[in-house]
Amino acid sequence: MRDIHVPLPRFVRRWLILLPVCACVTACALIHHDRPPAAFIAPEQIRLADDIHLASEGWPSARWWDQYRDPQLDALIDRALGHAPTLAIAREHVSQAHAQVELIRAGSGLQASTLAEADREHVSGHGFLSAYSSHDPAIGAYGPWYWTGLVGVDAHYDVDLWGKQRDLVRAALGEQNARRAEAAQAELEVSTGVAQLYYQIQIVYVSLGLLQQLRSVDALELDARTARHERGLEALTQSAEARAQLLALDQQIASAQEQIVQTREALRALVGAGPNDLPEIAPVALPSPSVGLPATLSFELLNRRPDLQALRWLAAASFDRVDAAKAAFYPSFDITAFFGFNALRMRDLFTRSGEQINFIPGLTLPIFDGGRLNAGLHGARAASNTLIEQYNEAVLDAVRDIAQTGSEIDDLDHRAQLQRERIDAIRVTSDSTEAQYQRGLADRAAAMKARAPVIEGQLALLQLNGDEIEAEIVLTRALGGGYRSDDLPPLAKSGEH
Predict the structure, then answer these.
(1) Class (C level, CATH) for 116-159+336-365
(2) What is the C-alpha to C-alpha distance for residues 258 and 388, in angstroms, rounded to an integer?
(3) Using an 8 Å Cβ cutoff, are 310 and 395 in contact?
(4) Which end of the chain is more exposed for a tag (fewer CB within 10 A), N or C?
């Protein structure tokens, strides 16, 4: 292949030298108005009140559920992280964002393609090629029918003088990073969701045991009332009331058993297991409280919360989209080239005289667009400011959730301690009645009935313990669940304040 150099005319070279200056002046004149970017939240607002604290301190670990030392829970969460449909969707979003980056990046480079055309053509006697519509070998006319051919390589390159394509690539990369953070958030939602459902089942298991004990007390009470009624010592209403109370307990037991079935189905769907693919969940001892609050939040919270990280990446990407919208005001410069063969007759296609070379520098300068570019810039800026405000709101919501959940755990812990003291006080009466029964000073029904307040107190304490476990998992999610990323995007583009 021969190297062909086509020098540009002198006047073209002069205009190319003046092009950047003219473009800057023209573009600045076209930008009517651009609002400043919205302000990001101040660091001092990312903190907890001084009266919000727990007994222990610290951030959750990466595998925060290991603190419960429950192999059954570990297996469920590990399975969910590998098979949950929600995570499969999140990973596909990451792949889609990566493909978008590659697509935009590919558009920034040299585009080349091979062309090959064959055309059976009838030349008009009144058109531009009317001379070839007749048969005149002297001028190479053998018309009016011809086979025309075109073979060659076509190339096109957009010169990114103002960084528009670079900004679009950076915006796409920011969105890809946001999707990765969203995938981490989906993993956090799945792991905490599995733990919540798992301990809901465990709480019901314990409550079923206590309800069965309470039912034994009420069943004995009903037997005693029925016997007294049959001997004419009591009215029928008292035995009827005892029976109604027993039936109410049976309803609670049935409801608890159904709750296990419903919660198990929710857990199966979250884990991504089949109808018969979820292992049986055996009862285990409930864990002791072990969650803590960090001493300070500040910007460390932004590194720990994947949802905040995703919003921050989206806000950073929006800055690049604003820059791309500004670059659209400037002239665009591209180069199109073609080398190949073009002939009116196929037999002349690959001859020396059939060579065709095109080198076309192109310049597009926006002058009158009906406000389209300003509308695009206004929309990009509005979208960017909206993302910043959403980010600020999400940060404040995160701090609020942590504060409220931490305060709730502290309150539940205090109430649980009071309930344990109350149970100890009630147990004194129960133990006394039991001792009287053992010495023959009280009947068995009285001893069993004295146990009822203790069991009811244990049911109330169980509810508090369950609420505390639930709140601990919610706090773990609010603190980011062990997620950490130090790859933070900037809070503003250079030159924008």
Answers:
(1) mainly beta
(2) 46
(3) no
(4) N
What are the residues facing 375 on neighbouring strands?
none
Predicted confidence (pLDDT) at residue 492 exceeds the cutoff of 70: no
Q: How confident is the model at residue 315 (pLDDT cuts 50, 70, 90)?
A: very high
Instruction: Return the pLDDT at 260.
Output: 95
- Please say if the pLDDT value at position 220 is more than 60: yes
CATH number, domain 41-108+162-331+369-478: 1.20.1600.10
Q: pLDDT for 408-419, tens place per residue?
A: 999 999 999 999
Amino acid identity, position 185: Q
Give the whole-angstrom CA distance, residue 215 versus residue 36.
69
Question: How far lies 389's CA from each of 36, 189, 263, 392, in Å?
Answer: 13, 24, 37, 5
Across 155-164, average pLDDT: 87
User: pLDDT digits over 28-50, tens only?
Assistant: 446 777 788 888 888 778 888 77
- Rounded CA-CA distance 233/249 in Å is 26
Question: Domain extents for the chain?
Answer: 41-108+162-331+369-478, 116-159+336-365
